[in-house]
UniProtKB/TrEMBL annotation:
TM spans (from-to): 25-47, 53-74, 86-106, 140-160, 181-197
Domain named Fatty acid desaturase: residues: 52-292
UniProt keywords, alphabetically: Membrane, Transmembrane, Transmembrane helix
Name of this protein: Fatty acid desaturase family protein
Organism of derivation: Lacipirellula parvula
Annotated GO biological process: lipid metabolic process
Amino acid sequence: MASVTQFTPDEERSLGEKNTLPRMLSIPFAGLGMGLNGFLLGGFVAWNQSTPWMVAALTAFTASMMFCWTSALHEAAHQTLFKSRGLSIWCGRFLGTMMFTPYTAYREVHIRHHAYLNTPRDWELWPYSDPNASLGFRRAFVWFDLLCGVASGPIIYGRIFFHRDSPIKSAATRREIRNEYIAIAAVWGAIWTYVALTHQWTAHILVVLLPMYVAAFMQTFRKFTEHLGMSSFDPLQGTRTVLPRKWLLRLSSFLNFDIFIHGPHHRHPRLTHTTLEAKLNEYQRENPEVNYPAYERYWKAMFAMFPSMIFNPGCGVNAGNTDHLQATSEAEDFASDVVPSGGKKAVMRSAS
């Protein structure tokens, strides 16, 4: 049985009040995009001069919807996707299988990402948060991570299962991850066997694998925008938040479960996505003297991240934090309110 997030009564109530289904439209929309592209490439309609443009447009549309799948998997890992924990878990397993990533491994990594943000124990931000990773290695890996995200993602999340220093000691948890790896191999083995037998590799690459590649690129870039260059161990100070204001960003934020409002999410991992903007407004109202790293334009957050990505891909200690890390017990679940892992708070960055 998969580990279960323990919510307070108020969190349970908030979970039951939200409406998830409209935000899940990315799943059927991606299927629709793949289906229409397969229809065009399958020769069911006459090929003309506009067909390549239609294929390209459908590929871009499918990729943008697959990008939203990563946020749905994220919500499933928190078990805030649906009121039913079991439904969240099985939806997470389906999405993880589609992304070559075991749901349970993703969840275990993500629990530690919240508990130990930007510290060496943050498995999700490896190697950027690892002081043992050299600058040369991080400079090389950041481009592999960005340009080969469809492979780097499963590698990063899989480390917690395969690494000799894995914090996962539970035999049951390791068995779940093993079984999810078996399911991934079985599902994709069946898909690729069918593709090989029917000689449809070209269509499969264009309809399925290319959108997956682009979606992984987008997801990695989002991760960089939120985290690279952030030194603080404090959740509100150690992540970049983007507040959606224009309609396109609002739509993208809606389909991505408001994950762009990242600081409040890191501070309150069990808070439903529908309340994140209100929580940030609350912090800003109660602390008017604090310049939180919050941006109203995504490109501004991106430009704030670029120097780190190019010159010093790092977080926490690798981004200049010298705070003393306090020894804490191993996290096994998401906390209701995450306090900084370090000693004194790092200086906050101003944002506009």
